[in-house]
Amino acid sequence: MTDNRIWLVTGAGGMLGQDVLARLAEAGEQAVALDRAALDLTAPDRRAQHP
Length: 51
Known about the structure:
By secondary structure, the chain is of the alpha+beta class. The protein contains 2 helices and 2 strands, in the order E-H-E-H.
């Protein structure tokens, strides 16, 4: 069985987010990292950048 799990880490620009990303990388997991700017829904130009 293949595990196709991809983790979504919000707050990836902060200390906790960076630690979570490091742990996931150590475990060989795939992750998508989003920081505050990437999640800013008030900026229409940024919304189109992330699927």
